[in-house]
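Before relying on records like the one below, remember that each one covers exactly one chain. Contacts with other chains, cofactors or solvent are not represented anywhere in the record.
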Amino acid sequence: MSTPESQLSILFDDPGRSALLSDIDGTLCRIVDRPENAKVPDKAKESLEILSRKLGLVACVTGRPALVGRQMVGVDGVTYFGNHGLELLRPGDDRPELHLDPEQLGRAARFIAEHDSPMWVEAKIRLEDKGPIQALHWRGAGPRTEALVHQIADHAIAADLTAHWGRKVLELRPPDMEGKAGAVEALLAVNGFETVVFAGDDKTDLEAVRRLQEMRDKGQIPRLLVVAVGSAEGPEELFERADVLVTESDDWIELISGLAARDA
């Protein structure tokens, strides 16, 4: 019977043509009430640094801005696709490459500026400015706050923004944004990777998994392994599509630590 450790070892069959892709929040670190307090453990950072030297690609595909993702993980050899695919930060780059029409950059921020009110603060809605994406967090607040957030989403959709729901977070995005699905395809489509391992925990990661499995079915990725990190708030479809299920982020970190300790 195969174990998760043995399944992940396919990355070392041809390391130079293997890619390890991972979400950050909920996958490389635990979800916390306030996003700015999230911390990637040193064990994860050290493992990713080692793997970035052994594999053809190690990338963090995150909802955070790319520079924030790099700051959290702290590994220069990792590629960071931030803001759900809007920003690509390659190793050695000082600034991310934007994957967005310049006219769309400020749409979500303008909506927030026009609609923000003291009622949002009273309802314990916390705003996160991610540039092209504006996030409203309400972890720790009650159902009335969630109802208010849904009203805000309706107004945003009427203003031709996209409302995207995560784990106790609403993201207001520019229209026609592909998200992590577009990010993983952009990372992999032209690089000839034979083996891909992807790990995530949320709805945005499910979108990436769907795209990766479509690419596999078309023969663009010969070997794909999906790892889902368990969560009561995560989409059931992600767990159904996964090849490997782990209970929490610490379990995923243990797996990549074991990979890093291997002789490639």
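The mean pLDDT is 91.
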